[in-house]
Design goal:
mainly alpha; about 60% helix; 3 helices; flat; about 100 residues
Length: about 100
């Protein structure tokens, strides 16, 4: 309930929870918006999982908040470079040998 109140006070119009328990309820402008927000969340969770496994960020040995933020930033950048490189390589056409 605290998260719902906090989001409403912050002016967020569409609020969708993964699991609706008790008196909590999703607040969205349409069923389409609820579906889009749930898909967005699952995409974000997949990216976070991929970053954690691919760059071994199960625990951060860097001490302090600034170091932790740096570790996350560089890991996200590395992940994005890896994804972009994969797309570029997949779209390259092999040059035929003569």
């Amino acid at each position: 309930m605290h998260n719902l109140n906090y989001a409403q006070e912050a002016g967020i119009a569409n609020i969708v929870f993964n699991k609706v328990v008790g008196s909590m309820q999703n607040i969205a402008s349409s069923l389409n918006m609820i579906t889009r927000l749930k898909k967005w969340r699952s995409t974000i969770e997949a990216v976070i999982s991929n970053i954690k496994r691919g760059f071994k960020i199960f625990t951060c040995n860097w001490k302090g908040c600034e170091h932790f933020q740096s570790k996350v930033l560089w890991s996200v950048l590395a992940y994005n470079f890896r994804v972009l490189t994969g797309h570029l390589l997949a779209n390259l056409k092999p040059v035929p040998l003569r």
